[in-house]
Amino acid sequence: MNERCGPFDARLDGEVLAQYAPIAVVTQLWDAQEAARAALVPADVQREATGGVHGEHDVVLHRPIVAGEPLRIWVDRHGTRPAGGNALVTLRYTVADARGDIVAEQWWTTVYLGTTCDTTGPPAPGHAFPDDARRHPIGTYAVAVDADMPRRYAEVSGDWSAHHFDVDAARRSGFDRPFLHGLCTMTLCAKGVVDVAAGGDPDRVRRVAVRFATPTFLDEELSVALYDAGTDTVAFEAECTGAKVVTHGRAELFA
Q1: Which of 22, 24, 30, 64 satisfies CB 3.0 to 4.6 Å to 205 for a cystine?
Q2: Could you tell me where the beta strands, DSSP code E, fall in 153-232?
Q3: What's the pTM value of the predicted model, to 2 decimals?
Q4: pLDDT of 17-74, one tens digit each?
Q5: How far apart are CA 164 and CA 90, in angstroms?
């Protein structure tokens, strides 16, 4: 089994950077993710799983990305571990600039359903919601998720998965109607961090991490609740149609 694949070329134009700030870099992962799934996920896990869902995602920014700069993405198998009757596989994405300096790191954890695996490598970085954070609310952020949002995200990310657009495909995924990309939901949460906690400046955000609980549905409102979790640290959760869609959200700001 390979331990690394890549590099994959990437580039963000100014419009995408502005639209998906501060974590627009997530829009560049789809091709790398598809290749890495085949190359880095254990074959028996892929063969025996009854399905898979994006469980967690974690983005750490080393510096702001400049519009138009050439980027290269490498993918490493970070670790695997059993979780109940499922298997967790975490891939680490390293985004570097033309000089080879790291611009961003990302950890993408997929839950492979109905199968198990050995424990290998370290766990993904932690971002558990602090027990006392709810005693320190700092604000809320709400955004309407319109029916065209999946198309706009797919145009920049390349992720045209059918369950975001087609009712029958969504039902095959276990839901009664199409739903938003998880990483697009994450970018909306990150915008809430910028608006409520970072003074409107996306360049202050150095980390955003989430656990996906259930999808965000279209033509609904996404509501993000944010809490003070310590110096330059924000805890957050998001709801849609009365259900938690993001839990264990954590954002860290540059001082």
Answers
A1: 22
A2: 205-212, 220-228
A3: 0.96
A4: 999 999 999 999 999 999 999 999 999 999 999 999 999 999 999 999 999 999 999 9
A5: 23
Task: List, in sequence order, every residue forming a beta bridge with 113; answer none if it has no partner.
Answer: 51
Torsion angle (degrees, nearest 10) of CA 154, 59, 233, 87 = 100
Handedness of CA 11, 102, 59, 252 (dihedral sign): negative
**By three-state DSSP, how is residue 249 classified?**
strand
Calpha distance 128→125 (Å, rounded): 10
Closest CA to 106 of 29, 21, 2: 29
Residue 38: predicted pLDDT? 93
Q: How many CB atoms lie within 10 A of CB 26?
A: 24
Full strand arrangement of the beta sheet holding 102-113: 4-10, 71-83, 86-96, 102-113, 51-61, 205-212, 243-253, 233-240, 220-228, 137-145
Residue 183 makes CB contacts below 8 A (sequence gap 6+) with 26, 27, 29, 54, 57, 153, 157, 159
